[in-house]
């Protein structure tokens, strides 16, 4: 029986701000190695599914980064399903199940969030193999992590009686939502509870049948969204209206907690959902003073702290148990015991209509990326990189003019009715309201400096007239 990996790559990871942001959430970042969390999960999926191509479910705004990161590691997904908006895991799993059933009526799904860390992947593989007969028999299998501590950031599962003729599989007695510290300590003291990993194994048809019974509104709206899905380049877009109207709910709440067919496979595998800076700290190798140091960092008399510098020199002196994270436009300093509260910073940024929770100064696009270098009253300066073959949309602006200076490479510039080639040290000027386009027609990356000037410089002052990437 073939296992089909399904990677759930939605989510914003706000507790890892300022590194994780809406445009580049934690699953798209290289937190534990040179590979991003998504890439590590895709490589794990390749092993768990015996080479079967994964289905990836992600938000529309992340589609090009997801596709590019999979391409970098040689993974060709069976499908990339685009959610018009976040609706939690139950609808995402339903869309993936419908996609799989169209190809394999007996499909068994292995659902894995894209932002989890697993140190012992061999142990996870053995757990999946133990759970496979259970899933084939119609059970909804989840993987319970043997707890290493009384963690308050995880839900818990109480292990019930062993399932007959299914070694290593147990009935689920009850679920417990994220507890306080005293309750968590009491739970693990019984040796009857596991952490709820949020990873599942079940037949696609069984999941949809149970969803139809337990949450008919979710099943109905997802069926409509999948039925009216349409192809967009290499992606499958779920229809927006029915998916937006779908109730948001997790798999646990929708089908597991109220069902009688749930099963848990306990496993020790060095698992973490990397849900906070302290959680990430615990996964990295400390130095002799218990510190985790990354980037251009100087420390003196510092212990059991995490210091990460992304763009500048950071010096830390005479402290302990701190998290210090520097990016080019924001700095976080927090005691490790308070680092979970970083969500409050993100909430404040939203209330104040700021951008530091949305984008980094470097913003990735399907054609390459740009970096904001400077800005002020009526001006903004960007560094732009266009990949070979990359082509920006044909566009115009109502409120700004642009000056382009080529630093390296060859650019084809469309400006109104004229088309010209520009090379190193050559420049052009785009007046307000003039349709224009930038292309890299060379074989090396194109680098240029863009100076914008005008009364309004927001990214929403882009009127796209034509776009090969089908963006609005």
Give the overall silhouette. globular
In terms of per-residue confidence, which ranges show pLDDT below 50 for 5 or more consecutive residues? none
Widest β-sheet, arrangement of strands = 20-21-22-29-24-27
Q: What is the tally of helical segments?
A: 11
**End-to-end distance, in Å?**
42 Å
Strand content: 25-35%
- Average per-residue pLDDT, rounded, comes to 95
- Please outline the major beta sheet: 6 strands, antiparallel
| Rg | 24 Å
- The number of E-state strands comes to 30
What structural class should be given to the helix and strand makeup? Answer: alpha/beta
Helix content: 10-25%
Can you describe this structure?
By secondary structure, the chain is of the alpha/beta class. The chain contains 11 helices and 30 strands. The strands form 7 sheets. A 6-stranded antiparallel sheet has the order 20-21-22-29-24-27, with no helix packed on it. A 5-stranded mixed β-barrel has the order 6-9-7-8-12. It has a 4-stranded mixed sheet with strand order 14-16-18-19, with helices on one face. The model has no long low-confidence stretch (mean pLDDT 95).
Task: Describe what is shown at a glance.
The chain has 11 helices and 30 strands. With about 475 residues, it is α/β, with parallel strands linked by helices.
Topology, pairings included?
Layout: E1 3-8, H1 37-48, E2 55-59, H2 63-72, E3 79-83, H3 89-101, E4 108-113, E5 117-118, H4 121-136, E6 140-145, E7 156-162, E8 170-176, H5 181-189, E9 193-203, H6 204-214, H7 216-227, E10 230-232, E11 235-237, H8 240-244, H9 251-256, E12 262-267, E13 271-272, H10 277-283, E14 292-294, E15 297-300, E16 306-309, E17 314-317, E18 322-326, E19 331-335, H11 342-351, E20 362-365, E21 368-376, E22 379-386, E23 394-396, E24 400-408, E25 411-415, E26 418-422, E27 427-430, E28 436-440, E29 446-454, E30 463-466
Parallel strand pairs: 1-2, 1-4, 2-3, 3-11, 6-12, 14-16, 15-17, 16-18
Antiparallel strand pairs: 4-9, 5-13, 6-9, 7-8, 7-9, 8-12, 10-11, 18-19, 20-21, 21-22, 22-29, 23-30, 24-27, 24-29, 25-26, 25-28
Helix pairs in contact: 3-6, 3-7, 6-7
